[in-house]
Amino acid sequence: MTNIHFYKYQGTGNDFVIMDNRNGRYNELTDAQVKQLCDRRFGIGADGLMLLNQREGYDFEMKYYNADGRESSMCGNGGRCLVAFARKMGLEQEHLSFIAVDGPHEATLKGADWVNLKMQDVNWVENGPLHFYLNTGSPHFVKYVNDVQAIDVYTEGKEIRYNERFAAEGTNVNFVQEMDKGIFVRTYERGVEDETYSCGTGVTAAALTFANGENKEYVIPVQTLGGQLEVRFTKTGERSYSDIWLCGPATLVFEGDINI
Question: Which residues are recorded as binding substrate (predicted)?
Fold first, then answer.
């Protein structure tokens, strides 16, 4: 039996189990154990699990697992929560740099719980007749709708995620509605295989596709089921974007110990 000291964080309702693994204590954590910890009835409950690891040349390494127990692609809200956790663990510098599965990132903190996370540049967007498809650290299918609140995100999202094109690798699916100020985004997440309250890479993908005008700097307010985020970026070409920042709250919910 392994004793784990964990922390539970959330960023606009996207919630995560986090452990300080800088001493390598949790290196032997299995996929089954990760799945058990993320289980909302038989574990702590979370959309994903992260390890704060040591990595030479960076302030830390981000190791991310989906709720199904498998290591996954980049998670934007997870990255923001891990930055807030790193601060709690004593990394006090104003700018933090870390490495994740999709490459290096930098981040800044504002106040007690507001985290600005720099995402990877995007240089390709598929623009279909009824959708956009792009990778913002994770793959996202973006579809604009007239009434996002009325969408059955689980059913429609699952249908797209498991269609002939995406079934093997999977994709996240975002349903987006234009609002008076910004956009409202709801997301079906692969690996969770359900709707989540928020998705950082999905919010980022939706905000980029919303900027369909001239090449300039944009600030897009984004509403999710779990709260408000903001995406800042520069559009540098018809389908290219740089200096992309995902900004929003990341807060500690509780910490505890569990034996598995």
Answer: 14, 66, 76-77, 172, 189-190, 200-201
